[in-house]
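tool_call predict_complex ligand=glutamine
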Amino acid sequence: AAVAPRADVAGQTFVIATDTTFAPFEYREDGELTGIDMDLIRDIAAQQGFSVEIQSLGFDAALQALQSNQVDGVIAGMSITDERQAIFDFSDPYFDSGVQMAVAEGDTTITGYDDLRGETVVAKRGSEGETFANSIKDQYGFAVKALADSATMYDDVKAGNSVAVFDDYPVLAYGINQNNGLMSVTEKEQGSSYGFAVNKGQNAELLAAFNAGLAELKSTGDYQRILDTYLEQPA
Ligand code: GLN
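tool_result ok
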């Protein structure tokens, strides 16, 4: 069924910031930005009659760009946390996530947090993974190094500069499934769901359009189709 575009956003262009490499949510394929987040925001925009200009800034940079009003919104596998809700307004949740630890494939020395004593782990600056790692680092006696993007973090672990990475488990699982040289050794931690964010009290019409569009994509089955496109395991 056709949806009547929301009059208050129709014809407008919104600048949306995202992470650089966070497959399967945002990543480049043949130079083009693709992934679950990209399909969602583009489909919702088309359905609700607005345009988007996507800026692939990196996660922490995207949040800072939003806070300083350089962009209208962020979609970046961004977890809906209490701290962030103090400064951002979030859409309805669209994906359940959480943090997990991974190590270099074949590394038999790190099988749990207890093995991290005296070691350095890596996490993304400004992410839930960094917050989680920092929350247990004193208990387990390790140091946390912050880097800007997932690809660099994974390289750091594979190069042996850090013994482990803390990142979102759907992203780790996707990479590991593609033989990215990592493996997970611990259970996933409880985490928050992803939401689309705007600045608190601003762009309320954009947020409403996102929520209306997401609900429509769920009811038509397109939301599930998008997830299946990126998450289905090869046979
Ligand atoms: N979901 C995590 C967070 O919001 C990480 C997001 C990301 O790395 N793009 O902190």
